Amino acid sequence: MNYENEQAMPANEHARAKRLIDQHHVEGLAAQERAWLDAHLQDCGDCAAFAHSTEEALRAMRTAAIPFPAGLASRTQFRVHLRAQQLLEREPRRLAVWAVAGMSWVLGIATAPYVWQLFSWVGERLHVPKLVWELGFGLWWLIPASIAGAILLVENPRDRFSDASRRR
Ligand SMILES: [Zn+2]
Fold it and tell me: Domain count of the chain?
């Protein structure tokens, strides 16, 4: 798919790219989609920047880096919500998993600063080493996401990616 310049690229190509970027982080991509997205990101600075900022936002959440940039957090919540709606239309079966994952994210983001303070306060009161309560906070953060991830893995019918495609 070669275009002479970015302006010649239809707008829905960018929309598809952004959708695949989300999907990449959530469910992984089939090899074909992956290749298409890589090619698009090479040609399109806007979408490459979008992919990068999404990556950064997710990394910030995974490492529980606080404070989150406010815009990134709310944007990510919004995207989780949108994604859940898309899945409701196409794959109602998986919506429950998504609802759980989405809720845990939204709640996690919303409550993270308070929980962090709580862990910090309890840690200091009980004279727990900083590393220990930081680990505790990390676990609190990871467990809902891990459970949702495990359910997604178990739920994915194996034959869906049987055409030798790699999910990543
Ligand atoms: Zn684009």
Answer: 2
Distances (CA, A) of 162 to 3, 150, 157: 32, 19, 10
Using the mean position of ligand 1's atoms as its centre, give its distance from the Cα of residue 8 in Å: 11
Shared domain for 140 and 71, answered yes or no, is: yes
pLDDT tens sequence across 10-28: 788 999 999 898 888 777 8
The CA 94 to ligand 1 mean position distance, Å, reads: 28
Domain assignment of residue 166, yes or no? no
Count helices and strands in the chain by DSSP H and E runs: 6, 0
Ligand 1 center from residue 50 Cα (angstroms): 9
Structure tokens at 163: 């055409």
Provide the CA 42 distance to its chain's centre, in angstroms: 21
pTM more than 0.85: no
